[in-house]
Amino acid sequence: MTNVQRWYAGFRYRGNVKQLVDKISEKVLEHDLSEFVPLVRIEKGAKPKGFYFFIAVETVQPGDLPESVQSYLMPLPFFKSPIKGKPSFSYDEIKPMVGAAHDVHDYTNPIPYKIVESDRNDDPFQIIPTSTEQKIPDIEAISQRYQQLLYWLSATGNGTWELFKKACQALEIETPGRILRRLKLLGHIESSVDGRRWSAAPTSLVQIESQSETEKFILCGQQTGHLLSILEQYAQVNVIHHSRGHAPDGLQIQLTDSTQINPIIEQVKTSLGLSIQNRGNVANQLAEILPELKEWTLRLRSLPGIVPSLYHWKRFESDDFTECVFSQQTGLYQMWDLDGGDRSRLTLFYDAATNSWRQGDWYGLRFLALQHREQPCIARYDRVKARLAIPYSQRWPQLYERALVLASGQLPNYQKTEQSLWLIYENVGRELVQQLTQKLQVTWEEDEVTTNA
Amino acid sequence: MKSGKEAEEHLWKTWNYWLWEQGFQPSAYPGRGPQKYINYPISQCLLRQADKDKLQVLFAAKQWTVSWDAQTLLTQIRREPLSHHLQELVMENKQRTEIVAEVIHEVYQQWQVQGSPATPNKVGRTWSRNLFAGLYRVEDPFFGQVDYYLYPKQQRGRQLESVQVEYENRTQTLSEERPGWYLPIGNPLKVDDLEQGLRCSVVSPPELDQLILPARDFWLLIPDAENPDSGVYASWGTPALGTAFILLCKRELLNDIYRLRDERLLEWSGEPEPIAENSNWVELTQCLVTSQAYDGVFMDNQTLKDALQPRVRLSISFSGGLRVPNQRGWLAGHCPQVTVFGFAPRVELEVSNLLNEQVIVTRSQKMNQPLSLDLPGTGLYLVRATYGKESAERLVRILDWNSLELSQPERREFMNIGDKYSICGSIILPIT
């Protein structure tokens, strides 16, 4: 095997730099010389009154110019003044002569190099509250994209936060952090404690309270269009659009008798090989087992090893984050890199009692901060319509809100009053309200009667 | 049975098609002229017995009794005078370099198991008594903490039940992560482990002795081809053209590496980062081989040069769109972009429907520039890029939304609710 070496031939030239580069490039390309002359280096700051330039040459013997280079390149006027007494240079030799940095013209058609910016400050728990009064041009079209996202998640099974974001991007769905939360509320998906991974939830039927003679179930977890068409063959399936279309449609199965559910599950198993789980009234089950707020706080993921002096901090005050010097006060904080950046690295709750930093869903941490400030947290319950209203500014932690959403299979509607914006949850039983408000230390009013939880 | 085009050729094409569908490289190629049909069966055999004998003679002559991994061995072999066929195999078999390295490594390990005989031993296939491991790199997405794990590799072509190794003072059972690899094991590796390598005893089966992490000067870590957004990098192979990778190496190699950058052959982002305080090992991230003109550049570490130097001139890459990893395709209406990476200004690009062989796109495309594929519907499409005598091919499958199938997650996420229960979606389960 012959050993080709890269070496440099040096020249001095007086004249136009650009013209030199253009002409050499033209000849190299015209005669396909890049195999022998991969690049040309021009002295940095070269001036027309005289400068050095070097052509890289690849041959077995340094100093030997290939025939084609002799024939096509050397006749050019730029090569009239070779550096005397030194037919070949190594790269290390020319570096001090021309300085470390100089212009390089590469003839090998290199692959362009692009740096991909790291998205390290992308916190999947970060949700920035936005205006809730956007006009939605076409709810069905938007809703279809969310439906497609759910089908894709069901077919993919599990993945990373990055993958989830890419799928949202492909489907032109903005704010992936919000859609992740909505899908969790609807029982379609679960994410890891650190938010780095997600997995689709198993397919299940969840029973909800029915105001009529019929039995109602909602479909949660993995699903496809094929599953829907099979269900439609055996039961009445009501498709429920969410008020703003920003979630997959809800599928509500209506039966005259709850004994009909098992034959349907069997039919799906026969047709698709899919075992749907009948999970009963999950909203009530969840409300039963959810811990008190204090215990929930202690079970949030603790992030050890944070050195506060390495970051800038902003603290949640009234309804916004303001710059602060961290003084070990309990509260909700945004962690910013010292060199700034356009968004915070993390949003964390600092618990002075345990000297720990807690990570969790954004609304949950904000709820903690409100409770810590002893701000009264309230709710209103309409017993006749079985609707619960919670101020948007006091949205509950995700797991507690999930119990409310699974009571109907519907995300909350937004209701604006003169004073504030409310989230309205449908089909919420009184007992469910009692349990959840008591655990979250929320004061609630039922019709005109005030009850202290 | 008839021979030639009428009979056997379509069988070879069907075989290639099946390989494509399974996500493998096609392996059957015709020869030239009168060798056309003879070459199809020959192409299925990478190493002939004569090649194996020659390799064993070489190993014996050089007394290569150390436990090199496949890539290091290939570098050593490339430096030696070889027969024409072997030379072609190790230097020019561009699409199959890694598999060639694996097969040669098998011969090497068999030779060692047989006691490193001076003359070729023609007894039947004997399996190596060792498993090799690579590196599996994970990075905390918020704080940037990087950890490396021991990543055991399966023996090629051998099904082993219940492999257990003694590692970190306890017996660990190896479970399959993906074809060819076991799940990473143990705690994050220490710098000493990289520096000196590791050898762990295999508890079972008795046919194996050790799990070896070779002591190397560098590691090339590439993103997961099946899930490039996972953030995980591992020693799955050499990077394809245009694929950014991580170079983990000893500081001693930095002179060579800076030389490659000076000569416009390699680029990376930022400064080399030590993987631990005062560590002799550094990481270079977002590395990209930008040129193929490595031949003339002298480097002290020949193995590194060999690993980085591109063996192909063209490579097809798909990006974007909405991919369904479990069904090896993209969803209709969300086709990927195709980028042909290579070292020429332009490339001839052809896209055809594989089933009816109808050509859909034929154009001259600028190299290294993504092109949106606007495919007319669901089906299998062949993307072929050609420049001069070089060509590259890749298959892309477009799926209908109605063909989506539910996939059992490899891992279900559960959120604990107190001590006793956890939840996944609407499924509440007691914690066991």
Protein described:
The complex is a heterodimer of chains A (453) and B (432). In chain A, helix 9 runs parallel beside helix 13 (430-440). Chain A is elongated. The model of chain A is unreliable at 449-453 (pLDDT under 50). The termini of chain A are far apart. Chain A has helices spanning 17-30, 67-72, 91-98, 139-156, 161-170, 176-185, 225-234, 261-272, 282-289, 293-298, 362-372, 398-405, 430-440; strands spanning 5-13, 39-42, 51-59, 103-106, 158-160, 189-191, 197-200, 204-208, 215-220, 236-240, 250-255, 277-280, 301-302, 311-317, 320-324, 331-337, 346-351, 356-359, 378-382, 387-391, 413-416, 421-425, 443-446, 449-451. Chain A is an alpha+beta fold. In chain A, strands 13-18-17-16-14-15 form a 6-stranded antiparallel β-sheet. A 6-stranded mixed β-sheet of chain A has the order 21-22-20-19-23-24, covered by helices on one side. Chain B is of the alpha+beta class and 432 residues long. The relative contact order of chain B is 0.07. Chain B has 9 helices and 25 strands. In chain B, the strands form 5 sheets. In chain B, strands 1, 2, 3, 4, 7, 8, 9, 10, 11, 12 and 13 form an 11-stranded mixed β-sheet that branches. Chain B has a 6-stranded mixed β-sheet with strand order 15-16-22-21-18-19, with no helix packed on it. In chain B, strands 14-17-20 form a 3-stranded antiparallel β-sheet, with no helix packed on it. Chain B is globular, with a radius of gyration of 24 Å. The mean pLDDT of chain B is 88. In chain B, helix 3 crosses helix 6, helix 4 (70-78) packs across helix 6 (97-113) and helix 4 packs across helix 9. The chains are: A alpha+beta (453), B alpha+beta (432). At the A-B interface, strand 1, strand 3, helix 4, strand 5 and helix 5 of A face strand 13, strand 23 and strand 24 of B.
